[in-house]
From TrEMBL:
Ranges annotated as biased composition (Polar residues): 1-18
Name used for this protein in its record: Response regulator transcription factor
Keywords, sorted A to Z: DNA-binding, Phosphoprotein, Transcription, Transcription regulation, Two-component regulatory system
The species this protein was found in: Myxococcus llanfairpwllgwyngyllgogerychwyrndrobwllllantysiliogogogochensis
Higher taxonomy: Bacteria, Pseudomonadati, Myxococcota, Myxococcia, Myxococcales
Biological process terms in GO annotation: regulation of DNA-templated transcription
Ranges of residues in domain Response regulatory: 34-152
UniProt modified residues of type 4-aspartylphosphate: D85
Amino acid sequence: MTPALTQLSARNDPTASVPSEVGARRRGGRSRARVLLVDSDAGAQSALAAALVEAGFEALLVGGAQAALDALAPDGPLPRLVIADVELPDGDGFSLCGQIRADVRTAHLPVLLLARREEDFHRDLAGGVGADDYLTRPLDVEDVVSLARLKSGYATGAATFESHTARLALPRVTRALLAGVRSGRLVLAEGEGWFSFRHGLVVDAMFHGERGSLAFRRLLGFASGAYAVALGPELHKGSFTMDRAHLCEAVLPALERFEALRARGLPLASRLTVDFARLAEELPALPEDVGEVVRLFDGRRTVRAVLLECLYPEAVAYEASTRLFALGVLVPACFIEERERARGGSGVPGFFEPVPSVDPVPGVSRGDAD
């Protein structure tokens, strides 16, 4: 349970140099990574501070450029990250970022700039003063928190940021990367896959031998473990384009549906096979295209492998598999194997072999019996 937000210091002058600290310590006395949050809008500042504290940061709140520079004075500890609004009552975020870069003591600090409205020249200004990223409102505070998790602790200008899906899930970091203006590539450990992005668009992806939008969707749904985000130009044409709006409106809801199924559905590591007797009973009531799912369950593939191979969207194939399991059409492979052994069979049961209509007579061939 994170500490409750402290009240912002009462002040008539929003540029006052008295900062407000939020979430200064974790339970047990362990210090948190500090983020300097510079914004004169107390409501927006409080909402972002609350999200940062919930994520495990300490938020140091100031209302203007001079207050921010005072907070970065030589006699105090430096934050791990600076997040500044572009419009400040005593200056602007671009100039503040330039001053931070000009001081050798603070030049390494990552700086995220937030704009209340997008201007054509803002991106050039942000790049010119050395900002690490530039985001425009309305924005999701979780995107800012995700970028803070990814970039805090790294020096500005760092080309590669490492993380893990257990710390920062791929859908969240992807949404955050598309909220900014940077280009680069997210690469999974062990070369399992990657996707590239450019100025708010996903432009290419590869995962498990697939390339394109299907690979991107499956990477977000199935990949886990360590990954790295490498920032830099992505100049190749790519295989598709997807903006943040489509990601949020179509891809992420489908992933949430898939995750909800995983929480209560079939384990992805389980091996299932078909009970053909049960399939024959249920077949008249099943959709015609269910065969595209059924045929993949051979007792050797895992549910995960089936979902990756199936042509249907993962959530659709997973729902169909779960339904077939509930009907008894799909059963654990070990169940069928044990049943066949109990019947005196050996090896893998020959599901597709016809049953002889007449029991063979020992020593007599089929031709002789006829």
